[in-house]
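Re: your question about Golgi apparatus membrane protein TVP23 homolog

S., sorry for the slow reply, the queue was backed up all week. Below is exactly what I fed in.
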Amino acid sequence: QGSSEDIEDVSLFDADDDLSRRSKQSKIRHPVASFFHLFFRVSAIAVYLLCELLTSSFIACMVTIILLLSCDFWAVKNVTGRLMVGLRWWNQVDDDGRSHWVFEARKVSAPGSRTSSEAESRIFWLGLITCPMIWVVFAFSALFSFKVKWLAVVVMGVVLQGANLYGYIRCKVGSRKNLTSMATSYLGKQFLRQ
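Result:
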């Protein structure tokens, strides 16, 4: 009776536009780059964990792991960082022989002009942060279990993946800002929210 007058006619086009915007943002635009961003990292960790079960040759395992880590370093630094999140970093030597580190972030001119999606960004940062932490755990494990021969391999994993992590954090935060002050302010904000 009176309920038909209380019902408001709402257009569904806004909801459809919002849904299509969300699906475009969560869509992976560079599936090959996303695959290889995780493939080399996860493969190196898997080979490290399964190496002694599959073969007794330490040299073959070490070479395989270091090759996978090197491929990962190159792919993340030169390809996936640029495609997935629009960040890149490199070292440049000037004519005087001085080394300069360059950290770049893609400029976003309009809100709809982003070429990287939220899903790719999550994949990139999750892989970039999680894997070096796993290698640090492996380093402590190798150190405390006295597996000195594996310590060199694990240190290579920490150094190569840690260098990419540091470079991309500097790109994201900005080369002029102090990372310690950024971390302190972030933790302070998180503490105040809780």
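Residues 30-192 form one domain. The longest helix spans residues 58-85.

Happy to talk it through on Thursday.
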